[in-house]
Amino acid sequence: MTQVMEKNLEYYLNLNYTLLVNHIVDESGSYYYGKIVELDGCHSTADTVEELIKDLEEVKKAHIEIKLEFGDLIPEPKEMPSGNIMLRMPKTLHWKLANEAEREGISLNQYILYKLSSK
To answer: Which domain of life is it from (predicted)?
Structure first.
């Protein structure tokens, strides 16, 4: 018999949510802006990264507490993709891309990555 884990405040606080931090310099000065990607509305600003992370932990806790109180859905972090994909393509396209990669002197994988990221 498997035991079902209770998804309480402690459960959510221990999940590895994605933290996005940007250094901002604008007319108001220099500061850090951060957000928890999976939790809409969980964002803050601070003068230092350390202060920002502390603030975001408090915001995350309050956000989750409110969601739990009202029985709202709380998104969980997704696993990072492996970076590997299987891709099927027409032979003529494969031939064209392989030739272009050879002309550039790079591997087919590098060339396809370049083409995808330059759009």
So the answer is: Bacteria
Assess whether 91 and 52 both reside in one domain: no
Residue 95 burial (CB < 10 Å; 0-12/13-18/19+)? exposed
How far, in Å, are 18, 79, 88, 116, 118 from residue 93 at the CA level? 37, 32, 10, 14, 18
Q: Is residue 62 domain-resident?
A: yes
Assess whether 65 and 18 both reside in one domain: yes
pLDDT in tens, 17-57: 999 999 999 999 999 999 999 999 999 999 999 999 999 99
Range of the domain at 107: 82-119
Task: Work out whether strand 19-26 and strand 43-46 pair parallel, antiparallel, or are unpaired.
Answer: unpaired
pLDDT tens per residue, range 65-95? 999 999 999 999 988 788 888 889 999 999 9
Helix (H/G/I), strand (E/B), else coil: 36:
strand
Same domain, 19 and 54: yes
